[in-house]
Amino acid sequence: MILESFGLEKYMDELIDSTNYQLRVMKYEKPKTKDSTHDAHCDSNMLTLLYQNEVNGLQIQSKDGEWINMKPSPNSFIVLIGESLSVWLNGRLPSPSHRVMMKGNEDRYSLGLFTRPRGGYVIKVPNELVDDNNPILFKPHDHEEFLKFYYSEITQAAVKPGGYISRLKAYCSV
Ligand SMILES: O=C(O)CCC(=O)C(=O)O
Ligand SMILES: [Fe+2]
């Protein structure tokens, strides 16, 4: 759907062939005293699909910085755009900052399917998205090399307490 909306269907096979999938089950314990908030972040992968039990908790940050509570119906998935996809789209779609805020008396479980680019595949903005009005914003890069940088001591130290910095965009900005 995203590729179609940009007229980039021809890249579909290439992207599917260069994708790895990770399925993760996450447990968020009910808060012991007052509300508990998990770190806000943007996912650095391509796409994240989330499914949760009946306990809400996911919040998405709007452009003006407001936190919006997600209340998905029980038969729906939440789809988040990751920074890799945002970079591949030359920033045409943003990757939302999100966090989990736990309230109440019940544990929350969520299931996440994370799609990420395979090591060795070079993420490069398609030529179709670059022109005089839309200069290229990101350099071609290999996601695995980025992850090495991401987990390096330098970048860990650069993460300000309570604040999120986009390490992928810092890594490959032109
Ligand atoms: O559990 C959720 O709803 C969000 C999980 C999440 O943001 C993540 O694992 O990156
Ligand atoms: Fe996330």
From TrEMBL:
Q: Where is the Fe2OG dioxygenase domain?
A: 19-117
Q: Which InterPro entries match?
A: IPNS-like_FE2OG_OXY, IPNS-like_sf, Iron_ascorbate_oxido_reductase, Oxoglu/Fe-dep_dioxygenase_dom
Protein name listed in UniProt:
Fe2OG dioxygenase domain-containing protein
Source organism of this protein record: Gossypium harknessii
